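Extended Data, panel c. Modelled sequence:
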Amino acid sequence: MSIFNKETTDQLTEILSKLTNEVNLVYFHQETDCPTCEETLKFLNEMIALSDKIKLEVLNFANEKEKAVSFGINKVPAIVITDKDKTDRGIRFYGAPAGYEINSFLASLFEASGLSEPLPADILNRVKLIDKEIYIQVFVTPSCPHCPGAVVTAHKLAFENKNITADMVECTVFPNEASKYNVSGVPKIIINEKHELVGNQPITAFLETIEQL
């Protein structure tokens, strides 16, 4: 049974037809101890069937340790979005970007395809000035309508600055991670493991936190 019904498939096909450059996805999975890996792969296969601009590489997490380490992947299921040249832009999805998160997934595809919304010059200058390693985790659930905005902002920061990596982390798939960071409401944003923001914060809130590090 398909994940997407005909109406959704038609809508997604129309949206994805606007992609300009090729987008390359790298998917890490494993066959045991990963109850959502198969469903996430099904989601990805249905997505790539809707556009010849989206390419998918499927890797076994246990067998491709070197590749996983190169991307900083430490759990599965994990999706890395790279551009037409397969350049890593720091964009990660841990867990299927289902429910409302399909919006952040589509936004990242467009970002990697070269169709991003430009940032205001003053904001972009602040982003470009970040010269330290920044690791952003955005904890979400598929039923949260405010979560995609936070994920899109984090991924935008990562796309614009190679020092930044940004993860979407699906709480129901990774409950231990959610517990570790005391996630009681979503979206919850963790920057460099200890600095917290709650809610769909504007990009300036992200920057203010990062600039104080």
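Residues 147-160 form the longest helix (14 residues). This feature is highlighted in the accompanying rendering.
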